[in-house]
Every structure is written in C-alpha cells, then in structure tokens.
Amino acid sequence: MIHKIKDFIKSKIFNVEGYSDVSTPNDINVYFILEYGALSIGKLWLENGEWHYIYTEEFKRQNKLIPIVDFPEIEKHYKSNDLWPFFALRIPSLAQPKVMSLINEKKLSINDMSILLKEFAQKTIANPFVLRISTE
User: Fold this and answer.
1) Which domain holds residue 32?
2) What is the pLDDT of residues 77-97, one digit of tens each?
3) How far apart are CA 119 and CA 99, in angstroms?
C-alpha cells in the first residue's frame, strides 16, 4: 500500500515529459532539521542513498505536538530508499512553469530528489513545519 502512495505522489509531482526519472542519489549526503516555530521536531538526512528520520530529544520531551503520521513512533530510527510522502509533498509539481523556469535558471539537476528538496521544501502551504538545511 505504501508503495502505491509513493508511486502516486511521484506521478503527480514529477509527471513532466522527459523528467520522470527522479531518484535518490547514492553519492550525496544531505541533512535537514524539521521545525515548528522554535521547536526542533526531527532530523531528516540522506546518507549513501538511504533516507533517515528521527525525532529530536527536544520533541520527545514536549507534550504539545503529536508525532507526524508517517513517523508514529518517537523512539524509532526510520530508514527508506524513497523519500517519505510527508517530505516529498513539499516539492512543487514540475509541471508548473515557474518551477521549471527556476530549475532551468539555476541549472539544477531535475533527477535528484535531494536537490529538489533543498531548493523547494523549506516551507509549504500544506503544513506549518519548516524544513531547514543542516550541517548534520
């Protein structure tokens, strides 16, 4: 079931002629921190072609926010070869002319999920969380 959801999201976001091969790179390591206001929620990173997500100790100590649906267990270290829908949905559709114009202008790799996430996923209208690039 989860693979069907991921395939559906990929088809909606990346359904642009010539750009259907968006994937997770094996040779890039990138790190993000997910925040809600001043609260650090979790850490997302890509390492050796695998995505990882964990909750921060700060999030584990608080009692105002519940865990994200894709990550229900706060003590678990989540791993996946594919970026989870919660994060993938932060990337706007490549069918949007403004998005493609920016990609072309900045000469970004259209096939690299990590680059698209870094460029477009800091804020979204879908939820109030902020995804910041981190050094680790």
Assistant:
1) 2-134
2) 999 988 898 898 887 777 777
3) 10
pLDDT tens per residue, range 19-48: 344 455 555 688 999 999 999 999 999 988
Least Cα distance to 88 among 26, 14, 25 occurs for 14
**DSSP-derived secondary structure for 99-117:** HHHHHHHHT--TTBHHHHH
Spatial distance between the Cα atoms of 36 and 51, rounded to a whole number of angstroms: 21
What Å distances lie between residue 117 and 8, 100, 113, CA to CA?
18, 14, 6
The 3-state DSSP class for residue 129 equals coil
As for how many domains the chain has, the answer is 1
**42, 35 contact by CB (below 8 A):** no
DSSP states of 2-68: HHHHHHHHHHHHS-STT----B--SS--EEEEEEETTEEEEEEEEETTEEEEEE-HHHHH--SSPPP
Tell how strand 130-134 and strand 78-80 pair up: unpaired
